[in-house]
Amino acid sequence: APDRTRVGAQVPPRNAETMWRAGEGSLIGAGRAVRAGITENTTMDMSEATRILIVDDSEDDSLLISNQLQREIPNAAFQRVDTEEGMISALHEHDWDLVISDHSMPCFDSVRALKVLREAQSSIPFIVYSGHYDQEQGLAAMTGGADDFVYKSNSQRLLPVVRRELRNSQLRRAKDRAERTARALSLFDEL
Q1: Which tens digits make up the pLDDT trace of 162-184?
Q2: Are 56 and 87 in contact (CB under 8 A)?
Q3: Are 104 and 137 in contact (CB under 8 A)?
Q4: Which residues contact 140 (CB under 8 A, 6 or more apart)?
Q5: Dihedral sign, Cα of residue 163, residue 166, residue 170, residue 171
Q6: Contact at 8 Å (CB) between 41 and 31?
Q7: Which site in 68, 70, 164, 186 is 20 to 30 Å from 5, CA atoms measured?
Q8: What is the pLDDT of residues 55-99, one digit of tens each?
Q9: Please, what is the Cα angle at 145 between 139 and 150, to 5 degrees?
Q10: Closest alpha carbon to 30 in 52, 11, 15
Q11: Distance of alpha carbon 53 from alpha carbon 62, whole angstroms
């Protein structure tokens, strides 16, 4: 079986099974492996994948996050971006279930990443995962709209936070669908 922790292409659209293409971001952990310069495609039903966007300049940290989460969320697909432009592109190209962002990057930070996410009018959960964050900054991030913050030195806390935010996101989507259905049904008159 191919090593699914290597960096490959971007996450395909939800309705595609094996459509892959190269891009700015990096896919980690789903459907494509790179070995000695040879690219292999493996089929994975991406319509059922939990899609997690990682905003981090460190490929190593992104691999650690994806490996940690992949053990508990085997259907997860990850894409890493490290610039504002890359994040905007990823948000326009795909539907994401969660965003995990480092705070301190050379050309981007979690504050700006959160602003980009909210400007896209997105209610996608946003978790700050950083080694360069103090408690005051974390609380300020949550006041500013982040759903949580986790210290990289406390990585065992990341999985429960991710599970909680994914569950809450699913509940919000189900509630939104139910409300849309109720509104649509209220437009019909009894015959």
Answers
A1: 999 999 988 988 888 899 999 88
A2: no
A3: no
A4: none
A5: positive
A6: yes
A7: 164
A8: 999 999 999 999 999 988 888 999 999 999 999 999 999 889 999
A9: 50
A10: 11
A11: 10
Closest CA to 98 of 172, 166, 171, 173: 166
**pTM of the complete model:** 0.72
Per-residue three-class SS string for 136-159: HHHHHHHHCCCCEEEEHHHHHHHH
**Alpha carbon distance 144, 28 (integer Å):** 29
Other C-beta atoms closer than 10 Å to the C-beta of 112 total 15
Q: Report helix, strand or coil for 81.
A: strand
Q: Which pLDDT band holds residue 13 (cuts at 50, 70, 90)?
A: very low
Please report where in the chains the tokens 């700006």 appear, as a residue: 112
Place of tokens 């406390």: 154
What are 76's two structure tokens? 């997860």
Indicate the length of the chain as a whole number: 191
Letter string b/e over residues 25-55, b meaning 16 or more CB atoms within 10 A of that residue's CB? bbbbbbbbbeeeeeeeeeebebeebbbbbbb
| Residue 98 phi, psi (nearest 5) | -165, 145
Please name the residue that has the structure tokens 């432009």.
Answer: 85
